[in-house]
Amino acid sequence: MMPPSSIAPPSSSPFPVPRSSFLVPRFSFPVPRSSFLVPRSSFLVPRSSFPVPRSPFPVPSSGFTLLEVVVAMAILMIFLVPILGAISQGLRNVESVKKRSVALRLAEDKMAELEALPVPMAEEVKKGEFGDMYPGYLWETEYIKTPDLQLMEAALPNLKGMEVHLRVYWEEAGAEKMIQLNSLLLE
Which of 33, 101, 134, 139 is most buried per CB count within 10 Å? Predict the structure, then answer.
């Protein structure tokens, strides 16, 4: 039977070790099988017999103080409020871009429709709505005969031309927004 050897206590520890009455085995592991036959009291010693380094500072209790929690919440709020504001602004921007892209698509479709119609003889302004599928979107067309077009028509008798300005209006965040497309219609 092999005699048990004692465990050397740690020489220094970065953390203060509280004294306790737990028992520590005197031998190092792995333990030979024959040592299990030794009575328990012969190889266990009270932990208090080992020298324990003491810290000059008192051991803090576990948990957070109210002041620590308040400071942590304040730091969290300092960063959280601007982040939530940025998310909110981003959502508004997404909605704005969505409405703008719908207006641009409607304007392009209306301009294609105007280019397929015959050129009007005189300057005029027309207004209308896009119907029930696009409520809140309005259009306005303005046909203008510019001085350049008048000179071209005078030089070429069979030419008819008109400059068209198409505007699409919609309401967004309490303000009226607009997209304008311009084209030159020649016949």
Answer: 139
Amino acid residing at 155: A
Check if the beta carbon of residue 108 is closer than 8 Å to that of residue 181: yes
Mean pLDDT by 10 residues, the chain (187 residues): 52 52 51 54 57 67 86 94 93 93 95 92 93 93 92 88 95 92 91
Strands (E) across 11-157 are located at: 23-25, 44-46, 124-129, 138-144
Whether the ω angle into residue 30 lies within 30 degrees of 0, i.e. cis, is yes
pTM over 0.85: no
Could you give the residue ranges of the DSSP H alpha helices within 117-127? none
Domain that holds residue 90: 66-186
Total structural domains in the chain?
1
Helix (H, G, I), strand (E, B) or coil at 145: coil
The answer to whether position 2 is within a domain reads no
Q: What's the burial of 168, exposed, middle or buried (CB within 10 Å: 0-12/13-18/19+)?
A: buried
Sign of the torsion formed by the C-alpha atoms of 65, 70, 71 and 72? positive
List residues bridging with 177 in a β-sheet.
170
Contact between 141 and 165 (Cβ < 8 Å): yes
